Amino acid sequence: MTDAITTVLPAAPAETRLNPFNMLATPGKSWAETHPNEVTETAWCPTDGPRDSRDSIPTGGGKITAKGCPDIQINAAAARNQYGYTGAAAHNPYFTNPGNPLRDGYVLGFGNWFEDAQIMGSKNGPMAANKILYASEEGGKEALRLVQQQIPGAELVQQTWGGGPFMANKPMYLVKLPDGGLMNAGGILSTYYTGGMGVMTSADADLTKMIGNNVSAS
User: Fold this and answer.
1) How many structural domains is the chain composed of?
2) Structural domain for 172, as ranges
3) What is the pTM of this model?
């Protein structure tokens, strides 16, 4: 009986086992080495997914105001992205792209743009209102800023919801368009910032559509 022969192949050199989806400018070097003048990580919300040298991480993320809300400082230059998009969203510090993807917690302090509210009048006592509809003052101001990028004459107003025996215990912030149309500030924030996961290339077009849907019919 002939003994079986086992052949052991040598391990492939480490440099041949690079992640094929990490399209770095120089294979074998770290992202920081190949992009020395750019933001290379988001310490407050890390991502270890594929990277692409066509995409950059915008500067200015991970900052909050004294009230814990996102501190949005618009960047002068658009974040590089493989779509070539240079609209307002690409100047936002939380702009995302395939190399810097959407993820929970990316927009630091996003939840502090909203406040708890209650609906009064039920025989069972106060009921919690949809928090997304109740932007805080800082949240309202950011929603207004977003709309004013497209409609400079928009303004921020407050209105208390009520109907029949039911009444909210606090007013909600609304963005009023020049023709009288009203947009819920919290809804604007939730859509534009993708629920706190980041700003997509489609955010500006989505906002344009929202504005169009809220134009007054009068």
Assistant:
1) 1
2) 110-213
3) 0.83
